[in-house]
Amino acid sequence: MAVSSYEKNGKTLWKVYFNLRDKENKSIREQKLVLGFETKEAALAGEKKLVREVTERLVKRAAQGYSWEAVIDKWELAMRNNPTIYHYQPDTILNHVRLIRRSTEIWLNKPASLLTIGDAREVFNKLEMETRSHKYLSNIKFAINVVYKWGMEQKFIPHVHVTPVQGLVLKRTQEEKVPDILTIDEIRTLLYNAKKLEHPWYPVWSMALLTGMRNGELHSLLWTDVDLENHKITVNKSYHSKRKIIKSTKSGNWRTVPISDDLNELLVFLKSKTGATQNVLPRFWEWNSGRQAEVLRAFCIGIGIRPVCFHALRACFATQLLALDIAPARIMKICGWRDLKTMQVYTRLAGVDEKNATQGLRILPNDSDAAQEFANLLKFKRK
User: Fold this and answer.
1) Angle between helices 328-335 and 312-323 (to 10 degrees)
2) Which whole number is the average pLDDT over 297-322?
3) Are 242 and 290 in contact (CB under 8 A)?
4) Where does residue 370 rank: exposed (0-12), middle (13-18), buried (19+ CB within 10 A)?
5) What is the C-alpha separation between 315 and 209, in angstroms, rounded?
6) Structural contact between residues 220 and 238, judged by C-beta atoms closer than 8 angstroms
7) N or C, which terminus of the chain has less Cβ within 10 Å?
8) What pLDDT, in 10s, does the model give residues 167-185?
9) Residue 32 forms beta bridges with which residues?
10) What is the percentage of the chain residues whose pLDDT exceeds 70?
11) d(C-alpha 186, C-alpha 301), whole Å
C-alpha cells in the first residue's frame, strides 16, 4: 500500500496503489492503482476506500478456490511426489498434464469451481471441429475428470460436487475403425519370408507373435526371466525408448507366459545365438530408438501383405488364441490386460461370440427336399 505524488503537465498529483495476496493460496492476488488525486488528503481518503474494495475482491476470489491452472500444477506435483500413494507412472502424469493444458487453455486462469458443463462443451466442440478422434476426446475427458475430482477431494475446488465434464456426451464423428491385424495366413507369410531372407528381426517378430508381449517387455527380456525347464517366461519389466530406462510393466504387475513347443524351439535357437549375453533378443538401433514399427511396416509392404504396427503383433497373438477357443480370461492373464473392453475388441475380431451361432439356421432347400416335392406333385396330379 502506498500513497505517492507524480507530475503531469507541470502539476503535482497523487496516486494510491494497493496490493493484497491471500495468505493460504498465494496464487490469488488482487491489486489496484488509482491516479488523479489533486491533494494528499484526498489520496489518503481514497486509500481507505481502495483497501476495502481490494480486500472484498480478494475474499470473494479466495472463496472460489484455486484457478484451474493451479489445480493442475498441484495435481502434477502431488502425483510425482507420492508415487506409492497414487500409483501413476511418470509418463501417465506427463500425458495427462499435456492433454489438459493443451485442450483447456481458455480455462487456465479461471477459478476451477466456476467451470461448468457449458465450458466443457465449448472446449469439446472446438476439438470436434478439428476432427479429433473419439478416442482422443475420451482421453481428454478422462484426464480432466481425474484432476478435477482430486482437486475437489483436496478442497482446492470448494462448493462443487461434480466435474465440468460429468454428463457430457461425446459425439462419434467417425465410424469405429477395425484394428489392423494379420490373418493366420499373413502371419505365416511374414515369418516364412523373414526366416527365408534371414531378416535380423525374425526372432523379435516371432517372439511377439508367440507370447503376446509388449514391445518394451520383449526389449528388456533377460535369460534369467526364461525358465525352459518349467516352460514359462516371467514378464516383470519394460524398456522405455524415450527415457532410455528399464521400468515396470504397463500394469505395474508381473505375470507369466507359457512356453509352447514353437516358442521352445525358438528359444533354444536364440540360446545358441545370444546365450552368452543377458538379453534374450538381439539389439538394433531402430529398436533402441523406438522405431520398430517402421521396420515391420516396410517389410510387410515388401512381401505384399498389409502393413501393420509392431503393437499389432500382440493383437494377432490374442485373436489367434481366441480362434482356438482359449478362454478370454486366460488370455487377459497371459497378456497382462486389466481392461475387459480391450479384450472385447479382440473377441469381436476373432468372431468368437458369433462362431457357429447360425449353424442351426437351415432354410435353403437341398436336392432331396426338391425331389420329394416333385414326387408329391406327381402323386397329386394322378389323383
Assistant:
1) 150
2) 91
3) yes
4) exposed
5) 9
6) yes
7) C
8) 998 876 555 566 678 888 9
9) 18
10) 85
11) 12
Quick count: other Cβ atoms within 10 Å of Cβ 86?
14
End-to-end CA distance of the chain: 119
Sign of CA dihedral 69, 70, 75, 80: positive
Instruction: Give me the half-sphere count of Cα atoms (radius 13 Å) on the Cβ side of residue 159.
Output: 11
d(CA 359, CA 18): 83
What's the rounded Cα separation, in Å, for the pair 216 and 241?
A: 8
Q: Is the pLDDT of residue 368 over 60?
A: no
Enumerate residues 6+ apart whose C-beta is below 8 A from 63. Answer: 158, 159
pLDDT digits (tens, 9 = 90+) for 50-75: 888 877 776 676 667 888 999 999 99
Tell whether pTM > 0.70.
no
The crossing angle, in degrees rounded to 10, of helices 312-323 and 184-196 is 130
Q: How far apart are CA 131 and CA 172, in angstroms?
A: 10
**8 Å CB contact between 331 and 320:** no
Shortest CA distance to 230 belongs to which of 258, 262, 209, 263? 258
Closest CA to 349 of 179, 176, 134: 179
Buried b (16+ CB within 10 A) or exposed e, 35-58: eebeeeeebeebbeebeeebeeeb
